[in-house]
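Note to self: the last two entries modelled the partners one at a time, which told us nothing about the interface. This time every component goes in together.
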Amino acid sequence: MSWSDPARRFEPAEDVQLRAELRDLLGLGPVAASRPTEPTPELTALADDLRREAQRRSRTERKRPTWGLLATAALPLLAALVGLGTWGFQQKHRADGLVAQAQRQEQELTRLAALHASELAKERQVKEEAQQQLQLVAKKGGRKGEPYLVIPVEKPLKTMGDDYQRVKQNPQ
Amino acid sequence: MAQSPTETPFGTQEAFHAAFAELYPRLVSYARRYGANFPEDIAQEAFVILMQREERVEHPTAFLYGTVRTLSLTERRPMKNQNLSLEVVAEPGLAGGADDLVLNQEVRERMRLLSPTFREALWLFVVEGLSIREIADILGIPEATVKTRIHRAKAQLKDQLNPSGGVHVLV
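The predicted structure of the combined assembly is written out below.
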């Protein structure tokens, strides 16, 4: 554990002891305080090469604009949702208008029906009153209310000028 | 927090050279254990990826090991060994070259007898000398799981040493 990883410097004593026990069980012997491996020129050169390669890749690789990419990908979906929402709103607005219109028509019909009914009732009342008055009159006078036969007489449509004969001259 | 162009994930240039000298052979060996065909390339690529990152890496060693592990498994993937992991490829004869550098035959045999799940955690903890936190980062599992695996590996090692029986307690 000699390499410079800060997270590795503070290992709990319990874990160190467990490792020692396991090494003992495996027959590996105690952990030797090993000397840090001296970097050879070849390894140092390789490390520098890898570092340069990492820097080259970082420079050349196109940065992915994650949020921009997501936004671009989501744009058609967003547009579709907005369109659908607008269409839905319009449809709802239209439906509300139709409902209100239907309610107004229904109210008008109800009002007309009520008016008509009241007129009918008035007419019926007037008729009844007239009938009652007629009956009252008939009871009071006339022919004692007896039924009589009425024979209609047909009148000539026009007076004929020549259907009589003058028998006497007018005195002069 | 982004690092400056002159700064390395390990600090100064000298610290980076020292860390590279220490870690590079280990990472090559680690990649070889996964059966990588080009372990040197994988270890170098891991360093390039680490240094290419704009954001500071909290545990560079764990990052390097994790990257080597991923790259090694990815390299094997076209060979349709989808479920490859350290335990599968580290059998003697397959990737024993790495072991030969570090472990003797007896130790390798003990490691081989361990359950594959525990072997990887044990290897990273004991042989590679990584901390619990780093192993958790590499394997992508919680620290508690790493500890459990290591303790179970310990129990299995004790069983190997005392095959006649006896009830052991997981400590």
